[in-house]
Structures are given as structure tokens and as C-alpha cells.
């Protein structure tokens, strides 16, 4: 069996799980974002009267933090009320939390070999922890929280065997864009990563890649447990865990060998990612003016992202007429960045550093676009209307590419900027 | 009555969106999040065809391309069904969209090849339990893998919320 099949088997009490099987499972961790408690479009009551396993449920406030409007404020009040009344394991609230997927990773809320469910579509992010994790719909999450059980249709798996090493100036986001360019959408499939190339990638870049595989329309996204991951987990918790690895005879729908040496800085052009990716150098040649640059989200709000941005902007200025918004992925990232001086550097350069939240990526606040505006972002989606007006254009790239573009005022190739100032 | 005993045939007028990768931001735009249900449903697929929702007749069947409903986990099937769409037949569906459709009791079917057999306005018969799409206008047919009984049961019960109310996990309405 593949890694994801093994986790499903473990949680459904079966010896074997094959693609196409519908399995009923419990899960190790249920994460409820503040959005679970929003007024629903159908005003269906969602006040749970009981939950099967309160110790497996955490509530993380992230989509609109602090509440930008009354609707979010009501949702967050309901979230707190549920957590208190039903005795959830944890609430990560304003001042103590951040973006769900960043928190799961940095606090190891789930551990290798576990099954994780959340209402947010980027839940595949937890694949970096060797977890089988994916987003479910709101109703499914309510049913899972209440009854302790849900269902999955096991998917066939596509394996990406990574070899080589990431070249200088190329990041996890570029690896994702490279996979999108080479192999496109993987809808209906789980993705499994492995190979010596993955082990050479820093955890932040792996986490970005696992998060972004949602945009390849993948279901579960699994990465192996290795020394680097074990070191990270040991720094957070001494809890025991049972990682999964694929069997030698695991069956794959496809196996693709990807040489990391071929990855370059890449950019997705507006309105969709798959089938819409070019190299940063090629797009930079078009001299596309930008109004806003955004660095943040569950994909790229990590400490390494703030480090890269600060390094590139140190002693420089954001171009006239451009707004650079930087939103850390968590309060912990914010604090570390503050201590390291990154926030001072970015602010000196003319950027706005916000608190941690989904913010502009989810289009709710802190950087919403007007009609006709052009934005380059290191966040997760460039769909029409994603960050505000449906008449805005969103280009999607790595943090380095976004920071370089903010300096130039046009969409830029980050390589010349990076060559000037190598980032440790 | 379980989902297996019910009649799962939907007959209606085809409304075709042939594009691949129509995502849930397009089906259920963010700017409708804080509007009342009928105003929210008026925005369905508006960025692709302005004013389209107002042209839906109750019982129309949406015929869509590949990966229809990919993207965010928002409850797009519910908002779509409120326009009057009775069932969705697509080349393929986004995985969370498929789950949400079942959870909100919206009949769906993944029928590869359906776009080649259906034009806008054709009269269709869709059987989600047998996995069959029949074009009554042209006589052509497409077969598909039907939804499994467990999921038909959820749809027959009126969706997940109805099941949770039935079993005492949610307060009854009213």
C-alpha cells in the first residue's frame, strides 16, 4: 500500500485499502477554522449539542483575525463558545495563534502516520508531517466532529520521485509551479513525494509544496518521515508516533522523476495556475506594472519567507505606487521575525507588516484589490475575484519573486536581486 | 425509505458550461457571502455569464466540464441548487465539491464524455443511481459510475444536517 492507503487502513480497521474503496474512518485530529462558525448561507443551525471526541478537536481562528467585521466577530464568538461548552482540546485565538496550516506544522498538532481533517481546502499542508490530511466540506466536518466518523473514497496515487538539489534562488513554491507546468492537475489522485531530492529540501519549502498541491487538485499529499522532520518534532514534543512509509510493492497510477536542478523561478499568470505557468525571466521581459505585492498565507508566511523578503528589501524601497503587504503565518513567526529585525527592515522599506491571518489571500481584509489592479502574490490562489475585485489580475510566485517585483514596481525576475545578496 | 429505494431519475433542460476548472470562487463568489440566500444565488457563475442564475428554470440540469467545483471548500453546491438546478452532471468534479454535494443533498454524477453528447437546451434524463445520462433530444446516451448507496442514503435523508438533527447532534429547526 501507499502511505495514504496505510493511514486509511489504520483508521478504518481494515488490513487493505485499494483505490476506489469507500472507507469509514475516525481521525486523529479535527481542525475547525473560524469559518466553520460563520453564519451559513442557508442559516442552517450549526450549534453542535455534542461531539464524540473533544480531545481531538482544535479551533483555530485565522480567516479574519482580528475580526474585520461583525460577521467574523459573531463566528469567532460562537467558536469560543463551542470550545468552552464542549471541552475542545485547544483554541488558538487572537494573539495566540495564526494560520491553521502553519500552526499544525510548527506546534506538531498532528504527528506522522496520523489522519487529519479540517474544513479548509489547504489541509494537505500537514502532509509535510507524514500525515494524511485533506480538506472536507463544512457539513462533513460537522458530521465528523459530532459523530467522530467520516468517509473517504480512496484515490489512486501519483508518486513524484525528487532527485537533485534545489538551485540557488529557487524555493518550494517554484517546485510546485514546476510540477504544475510539467504534469498539470492531478485531480482524483493522492500525491506521494519521495526520493533523495526531497531530503535536501528545507522543511519550510516542503511545507509550501505540500500546501500548494491542493492547487493540483490533489487529495491526500504525503511526504515521508525523515531525520529533518524527526528533529523538528523532537524540538516540540516527546509524544510517540508511528510514521508510515510506502510498501515496496505499492501501486501507483504514475511515477514521475523530477530533477530539482531543472526548477527555475516561475510565475502563474492570472486567473488559474495549471496550464498557465511561465518562467519569471520570461514574464519579467513584459514589464508588467503592479499595484500590490503580497507575501503571506499558509503557503508562504513562514519565517524563511520573511527572512527572504527582508534580505531583498534591506536598504531598498518599495517602488512608488506599489503597496507591499507582508502577513506572517503565525504569531510565533511574527515574534521570531521581530527578534531577527526583519519587521523593522521591511517597515523601513515601506512595506506594511500585518498581524498573522489568512488576510489578503482569502480576500476578506488587509489587502483587498480594486477593479483593474494588478497584484503579485506568494499566496495560494490566483482565481478571478480571489483577493477582491473580479476585475483585478493576480500573478502567483515565490516570496523572492514577489519581493523583487515590489522593489522594481513591475513583475521581476528575482535572480539578479538574489545574486547581489545571497541568503543564508 | 433508504436511498436505494428511491427514484433517482431527473429530467430537465441542459444548461452547459463546457469550460474545465470552473472553481467554487466562480460558483459561489465571495461578494455574496454576506447576502441573503436568494441574492447570493443570483451571483452563481456570474463572472462567466453575467445574469445566468436568473435564467435557470427550476429542474434544469447543469452539465459541466472537467474538475467542476475545484478549489475552496465553501458550500457551493447548496448555493448552486438554490438557483433551481436539480442535478449536476460533469466530466469530473472537484473532490470537495462532490462531498459537499452529497452533504447538502444535491444530486451529482461524474459522467466522462457527457459534454460531447449534450448541447445547451437539450432535454436530459439523468439517473444518478444507475449512472446513466440519456439525451432525449438527440437519443444519445452516456454511462457513468453511479454514486454508491451510502452516499445516496445521505442525499435521500436530506443531507448531513438532516441526519445530525435526526440523531440529536444538532438542535431541531424552529
Automatic annotation (TrEMBL), chain B:
UniProt cross-references to InterPro entries, sorted A to Z: Aconitase/3IPM_dehydase_swvl, AconitaseA/IPMdHydase_ssu_swvl, LeuD, LeuD_type2/HacB/DmdB
A Pfam entry, by short name: Aconitase_C
Domain (Aconitase A/isopropylmalate dehydratase small subunit swivel) ranges: 59-105
GO molecular function annotations of the record: hydro-lyase activity
Gene3D superfamilies (alphabetical): Aconitase, domain 4 (3.20.19.10)
Transmembrane segments: none
Keywords from the named record: Lyase
PANTHER family in the record: 3-ISOPROPYLMALATE DEHYDRATASE SMALL SUBUNIT 1, 3-ISOPROPYLMALATE DEHYDRATASE SMALL SUBUNIT 2-RELATED-RELATED
Family: Belongs to the LeuD family. LeuD type 2 subfamily.
Record protein name field: 3-isopropylmalate dehydratase small subunit
